[in-house]
Write a structure and sequence with these properties.
The strands form four sheets. A six-stranded parallel sheet has the order 1-4-5-6-7-8. It has a four-stranded mixed sheet with strand order 9-10-11-12. Strands 2-3 form a two-stranded antiparallel sheet. The C terminus is likely disordered. The chain has 14 helices and 14 strands. The chain is of the alpha/beta class.
Length: about 425
């Protein structure tokens, strides 16, 4: 309750898809052979951990639903994250959603829409991302957007949009607008670029963008996190991601799967918060901005379609989603040497080419002057990438509690077009 009084909700990570062991487990002792799935007389291993739970059976479903309701009712848990949710069946997950919403209508439910291997359950019955339209009020991790942002997760050298792969531009636009074929609403989408599994964002950039200077990789990391926080859907950041968390190994490499790693790998290195304080403050500012503007948190695909469109890009790598509602918001990713075709109350630059966005840029300064005449307007400039001068961007009115210092600039043309 103290967390709730401080305005902090609690989401519990639950693993119902398997148990630590099958033989000798409490479930096997209670009813041998009932709680697990078998294939050809052998335990099925869709979890990748040696066994998988038969959630479709009545008493297994009851165990799952009753235990979740207990956590929600007695401990006031605000939401649940389901590990390998596709191992579980659709009917069980829909019953979970129905019963939990009777306790807390605002409960947050989401999970991994994949398995750890082949499961002994008809694919049409699996609570997978492919079947998202048949699940009620349950969101899924958007692994497609994750890989588009930073590069294929399971290929270390794969490059994502933030580190130069402009072929993925359209995929990023879809992610920003919450347009996923498997999701009927942005509320069903959990956007992220880092989680507890696989390389952290910072480590992924270290191995995939190894030819770039650290200062460039920091800008790539900021860009990736901003594209998560400004996208329609539910944003997720891993603890420590805001100050570039890393999981280094003694051999100079990085840990991909740290579930069994020691504290030397899994612990938070709090000195990195001091070292990367500007990055952390930057992300805090974006979180605050998102919370204050409903335009970034539209509740349905229809709303997004009504209040947005994508302008034609004028250069490689540029994307221009525009959102309209009461006030106008323009999200620009790419170069900024452009003339805005309409008056905009809010502008978000997610990347600036090295020749623009300083005091001598007449088109931008005129735009600021024009909007300054409108007392209700807010001009937001989020500079994530290449700027020519060290500068501070003050946010008008109460838009953010602080200004942000942009990092020292570089004049590397190759880096300047990484938007």
């Amino acid at each position: 309750m103290s967390l709730h009084k401080s305005g902090i909700g609690v989401i519990m990570d639950v693993v119902y898809n398997h148990t630590f062991k099958l033989d000798g487990s409490a479930l096997s002792k209670a009813f041998p052979g009932y709680y697990y799935r078998y294939k050809d007389g052998k335990p099925s291993n869709g979890s990748g951990c040696g066994n998988e739970i038969a959630s479709e059976r009545a008493m297994v479903r009851k165990y799952i639903v009753d235990s979740l309701c207990f956590w929600a009712r007695e401990y006031k848990i605000d939401g649940f994250r389901f590990d390998l949710m596709a191992v579980l069946d659709i009917d069980t997950m829909n019953e979970v959603s129905r019963r939990l919403r009777e306790i807390n209508p605002g409960v947050l439910l989401y999970g991994e829409g994949w398995t750890g291997g082949a499961i002994a359950l008809d694919g049409k019955s699996s609570a997978s991302k492919a079947n998202a339209g048949r699940l009620d009020g349950i969101a899924f991790f958007n692994d497609g957007y994750r890989d588009a942002l930073k590069g294929e997760t399971f290929v270390d050298a794969a490059v994502g949009y933030v580190s130069g792969n402009h072929i993925l531009r359209d995929r990023i636009v879809d992610g920003l607008l919450g347009r996923e074929k498997w999701a009927d609403s942005p509320s069903r989408i959990v956007n992220y670029c880092e989680a507890h599994d696989n390389l952290t964002l910072w480590d992924k950039l270290a191995v995939s963008a190894v030819s770039y200077h650290e200062r460039d990789r920091k800008k790539m990391a900021r860009l990736a996190m901003a594209l998560v926080l400004l996208a329609q859907g539910i944003p997720l950041l891993q603890l420590g991601q805001e100050f570039l968390r890393s999981k280094p190994l003694e051999d100079g490499g990085f840990e991909h799967n740290s579930y069994a790693s020691p504290d030397s790998v899994n612990s938070l290195k709090w000195d990195m918060l001091d070292e990367n304080s500007e990055d952390a403050q930057y992300i805090a500012g974006l979180i605050g901005y998102r919370k204050r503007h409903r335009l970034l948190r539209l509740g349905s695909s229809e709303e997004v379609q009504t209040h947005s469109y994508v302008a034609d890009p004028s250069a490689e790598g540029n994307i221009y989603p525009r959102f309209y509602k009461l006030r106008r918001l323009f999200i620009h990713v790419g170069q900024t040497d452009m003339v805005f075709p309409v008056r905009l109350d809010k502008i978000i630059f997610l990347c600036a080419q090295r020749h623009v966005c300083h005091a001598e840029n007449s088109s931008y300064q005129q735009h600021r002057k024009d909007n300054a005449e409108n007392r209700n307007s807010i001009v937001l400039a989020v500079y994530l990438f290449i700027l020519r001068h060290q500068s501070k961007i003050a946010f008008q009115r109460d838009d953010t509690p602080k200004s942000f210092s942009t990092p020292s600039l570089i004049r590397n043309t190759r880096s300047a077009v990484l938007a």
